[in-house]
Each structure stands twice: as C-alpha cells, then as structure tokens.
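S.,

As promised, the zinc ion run. Input:
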Amino acid sequence: MNGRLALPGFVNAHSHTFQRSLRGRTHGDDFWAWRDAMLALAAEQTPDGVRREYELTYREFLRAGYTAVGEFHYLGLAEATSAAAAAEAAGIEQVVLLAAYGRGGLPRFRQPSVAAFLGQVEELAETGARVGLAPHSVRACPEDWLQEIGAYAERERLVLHVHADEQPREIEECLAEYGVRPIELLARTGCLGPLTTVVHATHADDGELDLIADAGARVCVCPTTEASLADGFVPALRLLERRIPVCIGSDSNIRIDPLEELRELEGTARRASGRRNVFGVGDLFEFGSDEGAASLGLERWPGADVDLGHPSLRGVEAADVRAALVEGCGADVFVQ
Ligand SMILES: [Zn+2]
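Predicted complex:
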C-alpha cells in the first residue's frame, strides 16, 4: 500500500510535559522515591525553560499523532502562560488544566487559598489560554477546596481533571483522614460529574467505579507511565463492564506514542480475560481521540495521517490497517 490514511488526531489528555526530562534516570525503588526526583526537577523549572522545552516536546507529540494535549500544570502561573505560548508556537491544541494545590508538594505548587487558585484560573483564561480545573488530588486538596472547585466547575461549565487512586498509600491516607476512599470523597464534594476526568483510577474498587459510571465521568489511563512508576494495572475489564468512557495520556512522557498506550490497555484486558479483541479496534481509536477531546471540552482538533507505505504496514490489507496500527506499529507511522 501507498499513500496516506487520514485519522482523527490523537488527544493526549494527561501530560506533565516537564517530566520528559526524567526518562532514563533511575529514581529509587518505588513511586515515592521517583516523586522525590520529580519534585527536584519541578523546583528547577523557569518560565523560559518551560517555553523552550515544552515547544520541543509538543513537536514530538505532533510527530507521534497527538494533535491536542491537556497540560496538567502545577508549576505556577507564569509557567502556565509559558506552556500556553509553547503550544501555540508548536501548533498543538492545548487545554491548560491548572492545578489547585492546597497542601504538600513544593511551595511553588501551592496557592494560599482556593479563592487565590480560582483567581489564577481567571487570570490565565484572560490571556486567551483554554483552561480547565485540576484539583491535583485528594492528597493536595482538602475537602473544602474540593467543594469550592466542584461548584465552580459546574457553574462555569469547565472540565475538571483530578488524579485518584494511583497508589494504595493515597487511599489509606484518605480513609484515615475522611473515612472514605478518594473517588468517594470526590463524589461527596461535587467533584464527580459529566465534566470530570479521573486520572488513573488504578486501585479504584467496584464502588468507586460505580460512582464514576453513575456520574457520567471519564477515566484517563496512562499505561506506559503506570508501568514505569509501578502503579499497578489498568482496571480494564471493570471499566469495560460499566461502559466508562476512557481516554489516554502520556503523563510522565517516558513514551510518546498513542498506539502504545492503546496497545497496553488492550493487552492488559487480554491478559486479564483470556480473550482477544476485548475493547474492539473502533473503541480503542475513540478512546485515543474523541474521548480525549471530550475530556478536555474540545470540539475541534487536527487530524493525524498514517503513512501507508511504512514498513511496519507492509502486506497489511486495507481493511486491517487500524487493527495493525494498534497491534504492530509505533508512532513513527504517522506523518505530518
Ligand atoms: Zn499526572
């Protein structure tokens, strides 16, 4: 085959773009040791560095078929403006998911109050950036912050992204503090609705997944990062059972390849079920594009073209190209 196949562009619904610099380093034995290295890197970030580095990484996204990104940003307002400028220069659609951080982390992550956070959201939106709300996690945002942010998201019709249930320790701490699990706390505080995307949900129990399904919320899975950080397995079959919409993210950017994220998701489902073609190719492509766009509130985003003459597609029948992309191709199959 020759020529090109036009696909909807992939949407990278969850990226912390600065973390790209950590790939290849060894960061100790577990997530929490990696997090220390990540915090040290975050401490060094400057507006100029973000402007420069994010543009380069966004160009990598575009070459890999990602034409839109949700930048989950917790480095401060000046750096958020730089991230938006980098996206514009690279030519990628972007929503800045500005993180609310009430406690923990680094001083630069934190706002003095939830009102100050919402003020930052408005300030950023006034620059022309497309914005969403990102209460970082139940670790970083106390209950009263979550309540305010949930109400604001609903009132202003803004998307809301939040990390939850990535690591067992976060669940234990939430149970100790509130007597409920993280996604239960999100539901109780008005942070779980149709505009919500729960990032990871790796260790969500059945009750939490039921809450997500009942709310009409989404889950963003980031399989290559979840593997790298020893988070656990995507609860693929339990998401499928409940028909919870799924989107994908490159998260720590250890890999930039939407096909690999989808392959990992489907591969986990196959290993867990003993069956093949669990999600179906059509659904996987929807997760990669439409669901990501919906999670970011995007109505339009550019397409991605496949090089049908690429060696990894040699001998593949036209009708099988989509399945072959997920099963057997890397992101170098895309052409701009
Ligand atoms: Zn994240």
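The longest helix spans residues 47-63. The pocket of zinc ion is lined by residues 14, 16, 72, 163, 199, 251 (CB under 6 Å).

- D.
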